[in-house]
Every structure is written in structure tokens, then in C-alpha cells.
């Protein structure tokens, strides 16, 4: 792991890393266990990913923990995920404080059970002055729903004459998303071999580098994050320009 860390150029670290934590169910199945066993064993991976991101100086990490579509899973699994959310947030709070981790959430969190909303609000408040890294949990999150909400809120302002239609631009749209206080995603990682976005941060990933790994989420460790970072650093982010233009400006 130390070697991998040494291979990372600390001047070119993704500022915002987003992760689709996938494969808990398959991990458990592979061990002859129920799906929920996989979710229970996902916490170490969360800790490792956040610690790794922090080690390299990334300022934002966003984890997809529960999608709007995940509400359609069997009630038993949804309930288990919700109670794991509550117990994990409580358990991790001292660690968040110790490591300067500021907690944030995106998504339609009003749909979460009251208990989860309460603990989440408490943890967000307790960690609000931490500055090492911002850890955002996407909970009951769907990018399309987020965009629909933004359009509704912007439209209300237009109707109330608070906003001129001609003034609507990318910045205004940004400011109406759940992620109004987060920068664009630089690197998106998905575990478990699936190569899709699954309604995650559609607007914010417009120019993100995408990285897919076969590792199942409960097995994800700092070294896997570092591999993704090294892969990212070997790419050229051109943002529409030519390779020559990009190299000239370096
Ligand atoms: C990701 O693992 C966790 C959540 C979506 C909550 P999955 O539960 O999707 O695991 P697989 O994809 O079925 O293996
Ligand atoms: C995406 O994973 C959502 C989270 C990781 C929370 P899923 O496992 O729900 O995605 P699909 O349905 O396979 O695309
Ligand atoms: Mg899955």
C-alpha cells in the first residue's frame, strides 16, 4: 500500500471523488449468506475509502448509499439498510471528529425514517466545523429527481418575478441542486464490475473520469482507491480541447 501511495502525484489529486458502492449482495451470496450480511460488512470499506481520500488530500468524497430506486427492494432489506444507517452514523461520529470529517447529505432525505433523519441531522451539525474532508452520503438520492426539484424551484422564482428567465445559466442550476455546496465530480468509481451510472450525479459528472473495478464493495480497501487514483492520473482531461492545448497550458 505504501508503494501505491508513493506512486500518487499529490499535485494532481481529484478534488471530488464519488463512489457507487456496489456488490454487497453478491459478496454475501458468495459466502452463502443473506444480502444484509453484505451491507453489514460494508462499513470497513467506507472507512477505508474515506481515510484513503483524506490521505491523498482530496477535499470531497461522495458515497452513493441508497438510491430512489432502492426503495423498491424487499421491505426487509430496506429496513435493515435504514437501521444500519442509524447505527453506523452513531458509531462513526467519534471517528468523524477525530479525523476532521464533515458530514453532508444529498437526496430526498425527508423520505428516510424519522430516526434516521434525526441522527443524520445531529451528525451533520456535530461535524459542521470539520475541515479535512467533506463526506457526503447520497441517501434516497436520484439525479433525475434532483433535476426535477431544481426545475420546480427555479420555475417558482421565475413565476414570482424573483428571477429573469434570461438569467438562468449553469451556475443557477447548480445552485438549485442538492449539491449546491459541492464542486463537480472529478473521479467516479463503481465497484462490483457493473458499468453504469444508475441515476447518480448526472449533472455533476458531466466531465468526471469514470473508473470501474471488479472488487465487490465490502472488499474495497485504501489500496483499491489508490489504484483508481493512479489510473486517473494517467489520463488526460481535455475538456473538449486538443491534447496539444492541454499540454501547452501545463
Ligand atoms: C450496494 O450493493 C448497496 C446498495 C445498493 C444499498 P447491492 O445491494 O446493490 O449489491 P448487489 O449489486 O446486489 O451485489
Ligand atoms: C446503485 O446500486 C445504488 C447504490 C449503490 C446505492 P444498485 O445496485 O441499486 O444499482 P443497479 O440497480 O444495479 O443499477
Ligand atoms: Mg447492486
UniProtKB/TrEMBL annotation:
<dbReference type="Pfam" id="PF01255">
    <property type="entry name" value="Prenyltransf"/>
</dbReference>
<keyword id="KW-0479">Metal-binding</keyword>
<dbReference type="InterPro" id="IPR036424">
    <property type="entry name" value="UPP_synth-like_sf"/>
</dbReference>
<feature type="binding site">
    <location>
        <position position="71"/>
    </location>
    <ligand>
        <name>substrate</name>
    </ligand>
</feature>
<feature type="binding site">
    <location>
        <position position="190"/>
    </location>
    <ligand>
        <name>substrate</name>
    </ligand>
</feature>
<feature type="binding site">
    <location>
        <position position="39"/>
    </location>
    <ligand>
        <name>substrate</name>
    </ligand>
</feature>
<feature type="active site" description="Proton acceptor">
    <location>
        <position position="70"/>
    </location>
</feature>
<feature type="binding site">
    <location>
        <position position="35"/>
    </location>
    <ligand>
        <name>substrate</name>
    </ligand>
</feature>
<comment type="function">
    <text>Catalyzes the condensation of isopentenyl diphosphate (IPP) with allylic pyrophosphates generating different type of terpenoids.</text>
</comment>
<dbReference type="InterPro" id="IPR001441">
    <property type="entry name" value="UPP_synth-like"/>
</dbReference>
<dbReference type="GO" id="GO:0008834">
    <property type="term" value="F:ditrans,polycis-undecaprenyl-diphosphate synthase [(2E,6E)-farnesyl-diphosphate specific] activity"/>
</dbReference>
<feature type="binding site">
    <location>
        <begin position="23"/>
        <end position="26"/>
    </location>
    <ligand>
        <name>substrate</name>
    </ligand>
</feature>
<feature type="binding site">
    <location>
        <position position="209"/>
    </location>
    <ligand>
        <name>Mg(2+)</name>
    </ligand>
</feature>
<feature type="binding site">
    <location>
        <position position="22"/>
    </location>
    <ligand>
        <name>Mg(2+)</name>
    </ligand>
</feature>
<dbReference type="GO" id="GO:0016094">
    <property type="term" value="P:polyprenol biosynthetic process"/>
</dbReference>
<keyword id="KW-0808">Transferase</keyword>
<feature type="active site">
    <location>
        <position position="22"/>
    </location>
</feature>
<keyword id="KW-0460">Magnesium</keyword>
<protein>
    <recommendedName>
        <fullName>Isoprenyl transferase</fullName>
        <ecNumber>2.5.1.-</ecNumber>
    </recommendedName>
</protein>
<feature type="binding site">
    <location>
        <position position="27"/>
    </location>
    <ligand>
        <name>substrate</name>
    </ligand>
</feature>
<dbReference type="InterPro" id="IPR018520">
    <property type="entry name" value="UPP_synth-like_CS"/>
</dbReference>
<dbReference type="GO" id="GO:0030145">
    <property type="term" value="F:manganese ion binding"/>
</dbReference>
<dbReference type="GO" id="GO:0005829">
    <property type="term" value="C:cytosol"/>
</dbReference>
<feature type="binding site">
    <location>
        <begin position="196"/>
        <end position="198"/>
    </location>
    <ligand>
        <name>substrate</name>
    </ligand>
</feature>
<comment type="subunit">
    <text>Homodimer.</text>
</comment>
<comment type="similarity">
    <text>Belongs to the UPP synthase family.</text>
</comment>
<feature type="binding site">
    <location>
        <position position="73"/>
    </location>
    <ligand>
        <name>substrate</name>
    </ligand>
</feature>
<feature type="binding site">
    <location>
        <begin position="67"/>
        <end position="69"/>
    </location>
    <ligand>
        <name>substrate</name>
    </ligand>
</feature>
<dbReference type="GO" id="GO:0000287">
    <property type="term" value="F:magnesium ion binding"/>
</dbReference>
Amino acid at each position: 500500500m505504501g508503494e501505491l501511495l508513493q506512486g500518487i502525484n499529490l499535485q494532481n489529486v481529484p478534488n471530488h471523488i464519488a463512489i457507487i458502492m456496489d456488490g454487497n449482495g453478491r459478496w454475501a451470496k458468495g459466502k452463502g449468506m443473506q444480502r444484509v450480511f453484505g451491507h453489514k460488512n460494508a462499513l470497513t470499506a467506507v472507512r477505508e475509502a474515506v481515510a484513503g481520500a483524506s490521505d491523498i488530500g482530496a477535499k470531497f468524497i461522495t458515497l452513493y448509499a441508497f438510491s430512489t430506486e432502492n426503495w423498491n427492494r424487499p421491505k426487509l432489506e430496506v429496513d435493515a439498510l435504514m437501521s444500519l444507517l442509524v447505527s453506523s452514523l452513531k458509531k462513526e461520529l467519534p471517528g468523524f471528529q477525530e479525523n476532521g470529517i464533515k458530514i453532508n447529505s444529498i437526496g430526498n432525505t425527508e423520505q428516510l425514517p424519522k430516526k434516521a433523519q434525526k441522527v443524520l441531522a445531529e451528525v451533520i451539525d456535530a461535524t459542521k466545523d470539520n475541515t479535512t474532508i467533506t463526506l457526503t452520503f447520497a441517501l434516497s438520492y436520484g439525479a433525475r429527481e434532483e433535476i426535477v426539484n431544481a426545475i420546480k424551484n427555479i420555475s417558482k422564482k421565475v413565476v414570482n418575478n424573483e428571477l429573469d428567465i434570461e438569467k438562468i445559466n449553469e451556475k443557477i442550476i447548480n445552485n438549485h441542486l442538492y449539491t449546491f455546496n459541492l464542486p463537480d465530480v472529478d473521479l467516479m468509481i463503481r465497484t462490483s464490475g457493473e458499468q453504469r451510472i444508475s441515476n447518480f450525479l448526472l449533472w455533476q459528472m458531466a466531465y468526471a473520469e469514470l473508473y470501474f473495478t471488479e472488487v465487490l464493495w465490502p472488499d474495497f480497501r485504501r489500496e483499491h482507491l489508490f489504484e483508481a487514483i493512479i489510473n486517473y492520473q494517467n489520463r488526460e482531461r481535455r475538456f473538449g480541447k486538443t491534447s496539444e492545448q492541454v499540454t501547452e497550458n501545463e
